[in-house]
Amino acid sequence: MAMKEKNVVGVAGMPGAGKATVKEIVQKMGYSMVLMGDTIREETRRRKLKPTPENVGMIMLKLREEEGPYVVAKRSISKIEKAKGRVVIVDGIRSPHEVEEFKSHFPNFTLIAIHSSPKTRYQRLFQRKRSDDPKGWNTFMERDLRELKVGLGKIIASADYMIVNEGTKAQLKRKVREVLKSVVQGE
Known about the structure:
By secondary structure, the chain is of the alpha/beta class. It has 9 helices and 5 strands; from the N terminus they run βαβαααβαβαααβα.
């Protein structure tokens, strides 16, 4: 099987929009998953920094500054190629450059955006308490602005599918399953 035959589905969304729930669903559906944020967290650890929101955000920007706007996508391509199965979900796409990079390697690339209001996202992140989650509203807004700076808003606006996640986890799961089935069947 040629690598170009893989059906790669990118997932984009602001922090707290519901990408972790998408990850749960994808794994239950049996699809392979590549997390782009892992690349940033790995680089943060490699540089011997604690995975705080500020450090992870700084490394996200610094890495792009040092190696170009395609860097995280380029580092993810080998992981996608090694992933089992024809359908691979890529979580955490943040820029039009990354979308271009994936489309140039995987012609069967589809982008799904998960959208939630800032208030909803802040509450989710505050409850989640991952090491790189914001501890207050100002840190949350700084993180949002960093994400938007690299182009996340543009790709959310231009996604092939948009899922609004303001309801329950069960509602999001249903919507994600519907969209994924549509994307995979449309191969």
